[in-house]
Write a structure and sequence with these properties.
The chain is an alpha/beta fold. The chain is built from ten helices and 17 strands. β14, α9 and β15 form a beta-alpha-beta unit. 36% of the residues are buried.
């Protein structure tokens, strides 16, 4: 509802200065929106200012006037997730609350410590209120495991679903997180790799999943050829749909099967660039990654896990040895960096290696 209020009226040229001064004097009505017309800015204030404040303002802004005007109210601030839980869970557990959620489309995914399990429904409802675009809140119910890197989830609030459309860097991805592996925390990394690809390159995405690397590359570059290999039939089905959804048909060759067998059978020596986003086992596929590269070489985007006992430097050495065992070599030190935290004192890392 609009509200009539006392206001400070000044020419637009003095607007910024007046707003700063009025805020310093703590007379601005924060519940109302500042407004402007063609010539003036109107700053809503709590009440008519005292003579002392008026004189102080006029010394700085000689053209100011005190008037009244009708203002729009500011939308009420949405309480944060932790604020909504105040008084609903014991104070001793506040420190155990998840600091963030993974947002996949309109799904929010959180990890609960054992002591918070009895409050999971309350936490889920609070998250729905705090995140207006979220329709479902899920709690992780186990670790990523199995050949397809799947995780179990428990729906703790909102709509009973695990399927969503996730938007990322101009692309859309249809995903069922109960059937496929997908991490929104790799968004920056996927965009980084797609930005490195040059026109007319051939790329092999060895463990493509629902296609976030492959689709972004095909969307970003006009003349590329991407071979997307996936072992999980469910992920492969979503990959097909995502290619249509993003209108990159013709740029991506879909291949259902094991990356090693596929490359051995039909993809030898074709790639300028290879994406190896299987951090648990990528080291075991270095030989076939080298085999799929063109004879004069190319780039490996190699992903792995590092921790206190398995450092980034140690992984650089292991990769170099695996490449050499395949009859090739890394011709200069790889670009290597941490991509995201995956556990306390453990990270997913990437090594961009130029192989000849």
């Amino acid at each position: 509802m609009p509200k009539r209020s006392t206001a400070i009226k000044v020419p637009k040229t003095c607007g910024e200065k007046t707003i700063v001064l009025a805020n310093k004097m703590k007379i601005v009505d924060k519940e109302l929106k500042i407004k402007k017309d063609d010539c003036f800015i109107y700053v809503p204030i709590h009440h008519k200012p005292s003579e002392t404040i008026l004189k102080a303002l006029k010394r700085q802004v000689t053209s100011m006037q005190v008037s009244t005007s009708v203002f729009q109210k500011k939308p009420k601030r949405v309480s944060t997730y932790s604020e909504l839980l105040e008084g609903k869970i014991p104070k001793r557990l506040q420190a155990s609350l998840p600091h963030s959620a993974d947002i996949v489309g309109d799904l929010a995914i959180i990890e609960l410590s054992p002591e918070l399990q009895e409050y999971k429904k309350t936490m889920g409802e609070a998250m729905l209120k705090a995140y207006k675009n979220v329709r479902t809140v899920l709690a992780k119910a186990g670790a990523v495991s199995g050949t397809y890197r799947l995780r179990q989830f428990e729906i703790i609030a909102g709509e009973p679903k695990t399927v969503t459309i996730h938007k990322e860097h101009g692309c859309k991805f249809l995903i069922d997180i109960a059937k496929v592996y997908f991490s929104p925390r790799l968004s920056f990394e996927r965009n980084r790799v797609a930005s490195l690809v040059k026109e007319h390159e051939t790329i092999v995405d060895m463990f493509t999943g629902v296609g976030p690397f492959a689709v972004q590359i095909a969307k970003k570059r006009e003349n590329v050829e991407v071979y997307a290999i996936e072992l999980n039939p469910d992920a492969f089905d979503f990959l097909k749909r995502n290619i249509r959804l993003n209108k990159v048909d013709g740029k991506i060759h879909l291949i259902l099967g094991d990356a090693r067998q596929v490359i051995d059978d039909k993809l030898t020596g074709i790639a300028d660039r290879v994406i190896m986003n299987l951090p648990e086992k990528a080291i075991d596929f270095v030989d076939v990654a080298c085999k799929v590269l063109k004879p004069d070489g190319g780039v490996l985007h190699f992903y792995c896990f590092v921790n206190a006992s398995n450092s980034l430097q140690a992984m650089e050495q292991r990769l170099a040895e695996a490449v050499e065992a395949s009859g090739r070599r890394i011709w200069k030190k790889p670009l290597s960096k941490l991509v995201r935290a995956t556990a306390p004192y453990e990270w997913q890392a990437v090594l961009d290696a130029e192989v000849v």
